[in-house]
């Protein structure tokens, strides 16, 4: 009996590892998007060869993330690191998969949490009753400032875009006034008819210029800017990362508005209509945002992971020489992988299993815009 079981296992063994055994290709072609990323890729390739890492790395230049998806699909590239939104598009539109994902030394696979932050003195606020309240967003079409909060409003039936799929219009009709930097830029408002009230909580620069600009000349732009918008009582709620308030308090931000910022002055608004303390973001957030992942063709999941595992074993925790998760010296950040990456983990499941149910549901709220 034992011998029969052993024989059956040996017969099944090739099937269990078929995705690795059947593909003997030893070069992994990585799609990069900038001169700095290409240089880091070339340096990694050279260092891997010098350290006798089995396999080889080739760097392929892509024009955009979507171009990298096409290159991976047609075989002119094998892999690329992508944000969560792009992972969704790669899987949905091109049938691509994930070989690996980043872990940031917190909860595996989670990059950060999107939270709704308000002043503690605002006693009549609820995320389930935000109609005609004022809101502060880091920027238009950002994950934190747009995709997650607006997706939440759609999924809780507080707004409905209908057949026209005009998100700016329905968001403008929903909130009383807001600051959504970039909402009136020609890129995001080609017809010039996005609602003006989505800029009414913006303040521009010190000379009252560049109001609602999609850059730091608008003082309510970005994570810190959205928090400032609420701290200065120009907005009821700010949609930010869970780390934003901690990054701008206790003297970490020396701008005048932040010097007197007390953590006790702020609270989180929860999706169920309740509120919580700033340190309770694990149970009180709009969505967790998945960390970046390595997009590949389905048949290359195992092969690419094995190569990444070998690279990680040599360069993942390097204290000198080349470091896989550092972009120091290249003039840009988050090259090939996020600089916050602690290690890469293998992704055995589908791309939606990596994205998770809450974030996948958020993205599905925007399906009328078309991802493909």
Short structural summary:
It comes from Poecilia formosa (Amazon molly). This protein is an alpha+beta fold.
What features would you describe in this structure?
It is a single chain. The chain is of the alpha+beta class and 372 residues long. The chain has two domains: 18-105 and 291-369, Periplasmic binding protein-like II (D-Maltodextrin-Binding Protein, domain 2); 110-289, D-Maltodextrin-Binding Protein, domain 2, CATH 3.40.190.10. It is built from 13 helices and 13 strands. The strands form three sheets. Strands 5, 6, 7, 8, 9, 10 and 11 form a seven-stranded mixed beta sheet that branches. The chain has a four-stranded antiparallel beta sheet with strand order 3-12-4-13, with helices on both faces. Strands 1-2 form a two-stranded parallel ribbon. Strand 9 and strand 10 form a beta hairpin. Helix 6 (143-155) packs across helix 13 (357-364). It is globular, with a radius of gyration of 23 Å. The N and C termini lie far apart (53 Å).
């Amino acid at each position: 009996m034992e011998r029969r079981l052993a024989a059956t296992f040996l017969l099944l063994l090739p099937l269990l590892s078929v995705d690795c055994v059947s593909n003997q290709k030893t070069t992994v072609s990585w799609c990069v998007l900038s001169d700095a990323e290409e240089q880091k890729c070339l340096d990694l390739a050279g260092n891997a060869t010098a350290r006798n890492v089995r396999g080889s790395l080739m760097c392929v230049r892509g024009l955009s993330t979507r171009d990298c998806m096409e290159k991976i699909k047609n075989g002119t590239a094998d892999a690329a690191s992508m944000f969560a939104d792009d992972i969704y598009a790669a899987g949905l539109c091109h049938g691509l998969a994930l070989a690996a994902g980043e872990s940031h030394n917190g909860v595996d696979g989670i990059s950060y949490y999107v939270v709704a932050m308000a002043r503690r003195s605002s006693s009549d606020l609820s995320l389930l009753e935000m109609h005609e309240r004022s809101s502060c967003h880091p920027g238009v079409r950002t994950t934190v400032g747009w995709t997650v909060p607006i997706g939440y409003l759609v999924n809780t039936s507080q707004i409905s875009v209908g057949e026209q799929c005009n998100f700016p219009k329905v968001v403008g009709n929903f909130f009383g006034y807001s600051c959504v930097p970039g909402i009136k830029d020609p890129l995001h408002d080609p017809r010039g008819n996005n609602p003006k009230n989505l800029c009414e909580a913006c303040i521009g620069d010190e000379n009252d210029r560049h109001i609602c600009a999609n850059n730091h000349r608008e003082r309510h732009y970005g994570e810190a800017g959205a928090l400032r918008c609420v701290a200065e009582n120009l907005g009821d709620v700010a949609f930010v990362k869970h780390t934003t308030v901690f990054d701008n308090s206790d003297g970490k931000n020396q701008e005048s508005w932040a010097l007197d910022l007390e953590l006790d002055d702020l609270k989180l608004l929860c999706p169920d209509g309740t509120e919580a303390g700033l340190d309770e973001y694990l149970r009180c957030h709009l969505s967790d945002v998945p960390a970046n992942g390595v997009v590949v063709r389905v048949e290359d999941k195992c092969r690419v992971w094995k190569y990444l595992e070998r690279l990680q074993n040599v360069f993942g925790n390097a204290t000198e020489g080349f470091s896989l998760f550092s972009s120091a010296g290249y003039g840009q950040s988050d090259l090939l992988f996020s600089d916050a990456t602690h290690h890469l983990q293998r992704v055995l499941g589908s791309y939606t299993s990596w994205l998770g149910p809450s974030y996948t549901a958020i993205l599905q709220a925007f399906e009328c815009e078309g991802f493909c």
